[in-house]
Write a structure and sequence with these properties.
Helices cover about 30% and strands about 25% of the residues.
Length: about 170
């Protein structure tokens, strides 16, 4: 299945897929904010959900382009398990938006890890987003490998921006 999704479907499909992760979650985003989601009938920070996954032994890899804002950092400080267990990389050239769950489903599209992109914002205050969500094995594999190549720093040696990179990967 390859499904084109828009606007609120990002929350309904992509975020709900992340809630079901058993082993590994890969996230790439250009912008990152302390977005909120609904879980078990409560509104919580997405970071709290990631913390719960980390406690269950889920491997979490986060690739983002810039230093998170004050609200994200303040929320992140509340989850010491996440500090130790989430593998984070920052590359200012990352503009990809990717979420891969257990190498079984993948999202790629325009939505950042923000309330207006993937979070539970009011439908009239959301960004106009479009992406693809799939469980097609070949497509998932290709997206996952693309993520891994950046996450492992395979592009760093040829990157002409490395001297300006605040946190080089490779």
């Amino acid at each position: 299945m390859i499904k084109i999704i828009t606007d609120k479907q990002h929350y309904d499909i992509v975020i709900k897929a992340t809630l079901k992760v058993k082993h590994e979650l890969k996230i790439a985003t250009a912008d990152i904010k302390d977005m909120h989601i609904s879980a078990n009938g409560m509104v919580i920070s997405y970071l709290e959900m990631l913390n719960t996954l980390a406690k269950r032994g889920v491997t979490i890899k986060l690739l983002h382009a810039k230093f998170p804002g004050e609200h994200f950092r303040s929320s992140f400080d509340k989850f010491p398990v996440l500090w130790k267990k989430m593998d984070r990389r920052m590359c200012p050239r990352v503009h990809s938006k990717i979420i891969v769950t257990d190498n079984k489903t993948a999202y790629t599209g325009s939505a950042n890890l923000t309330g207006a992109g993937l979070g539970m914002k009011n439908e009239h205050r959301r960004n106009f987003e479009m992406g693809i969500f799939t469980d097609d094995k070949d497509f998932v594999k290709e997206i996952s490998e693309y993520f891994d190549n950046i996450f492992l720093g395979l592009h760093c040696n040829k990157c002409q921006r490395k001297p300006y990179c605040p946190d080089p990967i490779g």
